[in-house]
Amino acid sequence: MNATLLLQCHEVNLYIMTARQKLFLIFLWLAVINLSIWIGGTMFHMIVVLPLWSEPLPGSVKEFFGGTRAYEYLLDFYGPKWMVIRIAPIIICLLLGWNSKRHRNFLLITVLTIALGLILSVTVVFPINEAIMAKAGEGKSSDEMERMVHTWILADRLRFVALFVGYCFLLWAFRLPILREKSE
Question: Is residue 154 domain-resident?
Fold first, then answer.
């Protein structure tokens, strides 16, 4: 499928779009791709990776993270350095598409759900990551580790649900036609 056909499927004619609309479309594609990768990676982690380190506790945490580079590899996918790359296209889309009320409303909801996900990450997930992943639970009792792992799982699920809702709204914005801007 060539690029022209692909863009026509998106109800867009690049030849009559303004530069702002073209940039909006590019960043909208980047936003959808980035968030799709995060959703897929998170589902993989929940289904495949999490069971490897969450049961039976505390031995599974020590075995999975202790003396391995597992946490480093997780950071390579989910880490803070990727947050900016994942979020920036959505923020840029919101700014570029601000004049389109239909796009703006869906993108605002997406940004709000991402903000909720960031709050959960910074306040709950990251501190627990440091204790159970970076330090493999070192110095923590079995009860503390079990509580932290279950808290981490709950926060991770809430974060996933919030971002998945935002992802659905992003996809809704993605499917909307990009209308010609009115000439002034």
Answer: yes
